[in-house]
Amino acid sequence: MTAAPRPQDRSLPLRERKKLRTRRALADAALRLFGEQGFDATTLEELVDAVEVSKSTFFRTFPAKEAVAIEAEVELWSACLAALAERPLTGLVLAELQGVLAEVTAALDPDWDERYAATRELVRSTPALLSYMAHYRNEVEQQIIARLAERLDLPADDLRLRVLAQLTITAWSVSARDWVHSTDRGDRSSLTARLARTFAAIPAGLELRAGG
Amino acid sequence: MTAAPRPQDRSLPLRERKKLRTRRALADAALRLFGEQGFDATTLEELVDAVEVSKSTFFRTFPAKEAVAIEAEVELWSACLAALAERPLTGLVLAELQGVLAEVTAALDPDWDERYAATRELVRSTPALLSYMAHYRNEVEQQIIARLAERLDLPADDLRLRVLAQLTITAWSVSARDWVHSTDRGDRSSLTARLARTFAAIPAGLELRAGG
DNA sequence: GACCATATTGGCACTCGGTCTCATTTGGCA
DNA sequence: TGCCAAATGAGACCGAGTGCCAATATGGTC
């Protein structure tokens, strides 16, 4: 299942725990600072000063300023990709992908909800983050395709895999947006329910007709 | 039908014609320089020096260094969005979207093929451009959704519209990639045929099953 | 053709994200 | 304790992108 490793995990070597700690510290400080002053108005120097690390360390931990703002999203998809590699696949692939999302969201850190909500709000109101999110989800799409291609023994450029990966990400995006804006954010089972409804509504898109 | 306005068009005021000329000059020089030296290795200064305009003018014409490299893609979708606003919509919406692409690609400049092929090759081999393309297509997706929502009198957050817009862009992407790499690049009718095949193959994605 | 209001351009200083290099520190382990 | 490898910090450096102001070109008007 491979959930995100936590800094408290005493089984990890000290070095790794430290790295995870600064990573989390950076992500937390980022959500706070970006939320207070805005993403653009916050310089990297401010952020690394707040956490007391150097700019060098920042870029060894995150590939870009934008990345630290969407850690919660990254945690989600990292877990999904790990789950996708292990889970036995039977029947409709789209249903399996839905299952992976349900399984993974149930196992995330308790404080993930809040961080994810903050992330989405930040992304919504920041063009640079919206753009970076598109970039990141594109990479996730490629990864999902690669995993599926391997598991199903299909070529990586099979159109069907691309369609499935894309629809999965979209289904997540609209379900989560809905959930975050709803009153039962924090209730994971309501998220699962929303996912089920969204996945069920997908096929109707293909058959949509114009009135005239 | 509103194809891309051309600098030779004498009906346009001189001012507009000049702007279009520099725009095209920048896009052409960009494809050449980026192709020769690579995107990252070519500085903006080199580019604007080659066209003999200032950096200021560049950023008044394009929103980013990446944008000038994907002009051919932008021309395509601009024409599509214009067509989508005028075209009468009847029957399956997905089929209409396919129709728009077919109609638009048939009407593009004769030299568009070559520029588009160069663009795709450049994008394929340049991470920064891949990322920018994801960003741009995301914007196009929103535009398509907005147009469809208006025409079909549906809310802009209707999941079905998002699915349709996304599948259309994906169908274009794989059809065009295939076409560009094929021997009959330059034959627009073969592109139309590929589009038809790709659109027809979409529904099979939803029903893909795992062997086990 | 001269003139004026306005749109456009060029030049330039400046900010800041991101890369690179090298000296310094820290954790892992015998 | 002492050694090696890995991580960190410091700072120079590059180039994309922004803002400001002066210079220039355009399209009507008299």
Mind summarizing the main beta sheet of chain A?
none
In CATH terms, what is the fold-level topology of the largest domain in chain A? Answer: Tetracycline Repressor, domain 2
Helix content of chain A: over 70%
* Oligomeric state, counting identical vs distinct chains: homodimer
Q: Could you characterize what this model shows?
A:
Two copies of one chain form a homodimer. By secondary structure, chain A is mainly alpha-helical. Chain A has two domains: 13-62, Homeodomain-like (Arc Repressor Mutant, subunit A); 65-203, Tetracycline Repressor, domain 2 (Orthogonal Bundle). In chain A, 71% of the residues lie in helices and 2% in strands. Chain A is built from nine helices and two strands. The longest helix of chain A is centred in the middle third of the chain and has 26 residues, at 127-152. Chain A is globular, with a radius of gyration of 18 Å. The A-B interface holds A 88-94, 96, 130-131, 134-135, 137-138, 151-153, 157, 159-164, 166-167, 170, 174, 198, 201-212 and B 88-94, 96, 130-131, 134-135, 137-138, 151-153, 157, 159-164, 166-167, 170, 174, 198, 201-212. β1 (91-92) of chain A pairs antiparallel with β2 of chain B, so a sheet runs across the interface. Chain A binds a DNA duplex (30 and 30 nucleotides) through α1 and α3.
